[in-house]
Known about the structure:
Keywords: Cobalt, Hydrolase, Metal-binding, Zinc. By secondary structure, the protein is α/β, with parallel strands linked by helices. It is built from eleven helices and 16 strands.
Amino acid sequence: MDTTELKQRLIDEVESRKDELLELCSSLIKIPSENPPGDSTEISQFIADYLGKFDISVEWHESADKMYNLISTVGNSNEGKNLIFCGHTDVVPAGDRSKWDFDPFSGEIKDGWMLGRGASDMKAGLSGLIFATTILKRLNIELPGSLSLVIVPDEETGGEFGVPWLLEKGLVKGDGCLIAEPSSPRNPTIGQKGSYWFELEVFGEPGHGSLSPLAGQNAISDMVKALLEVQKLWDLTIEIPESVKPLIEVTHRYMREVETERLKYIDVFEKITVNIGTIEGGTKSNVIPESCKVQVDCRLPFGITQEEVTAILTDKLDQLGIRYELRRFGFRSQANYTDANDPVCKAIVDNITFVTDEEAYGVMQWASSDAKHFREYDIPVLQYGPAYLPTIHGYNERVKTEQIITCAKVYIAAVIDFLYSK
């Protein structure tokens, strides 16, 4: 089998049908699938109907009320390897519509841009995965293995009812996975920092405000002391393991040469980031507050565990002599990555170069994603998808239509390389 010739044939097919691909993407954006509330009924039915036009069957798995996971498989599932294409249908809320320059659910194409909520995160990538899968089916391509299209409804709020739910129930298995999350055009993300979210509540003793600080115990004042210690997590020097230093170094190169406008963030990969996201406390200005609560988002580099961060925090807070409770919630993971030489990474990176004739290489991401769940189940994974990164989760979200088409070409070519590789 001449795989290069087959890949080129499939790439040409995507090019000839690119208007259909963009129409699919536009249709997905037009369906509001904000999470919260997380109702994926309409968009899931649309996708299932679309796949059904090409005789691709769909398994429905409802993980929570109106949250539907869809699984479709093409190729030979009885032998060979299985590649997973994974994408999520949910998007973050559009927010204040008056701050958008266009209808966030228009799915309009203007001046070479696809417009709307989810254009970058991640309906453009999702449409590419779906479209590539249908092309393989439409052309009756005989694959020496199988491709599983896994579409989940819950990623933007932590993903409890999406990827981890499917993996835990054994509904998804594979030898490699591509998630079409937004990325740089030539630089897929092959590693992510860890996540450490916690709620800190400090307790005081109420009293009349006119007697403070002589009376009572002011929980807000004690919280100020506590937050000074929390923020010092950034100052810790973390010993990065030798095994991941090459990944950190190539990511530094990426920031110096590609994402130069974000060069000021280059230290983020070796530090614990600290974001105090919410704070509440007290009842009235003339009442000494008996409680103050904050929620904090920390991202952890390689070289430190969640348990070690907990130990550091509790040691520092105990020394303050305050009464407090530390509660974990939300995203939880250690820093994680897939080796750049793994077949699934090579399949994507090599085909970015094959399609674009430009150098490509994998880098680290300073945030977290569903990728960690696949790695927990020993499924190598990376992320690559069309995006205009400055607009993700913001107003006027958009992506270049050219990127949508390029990514779809990479996806379909990568299937061939991955399934035919030993």
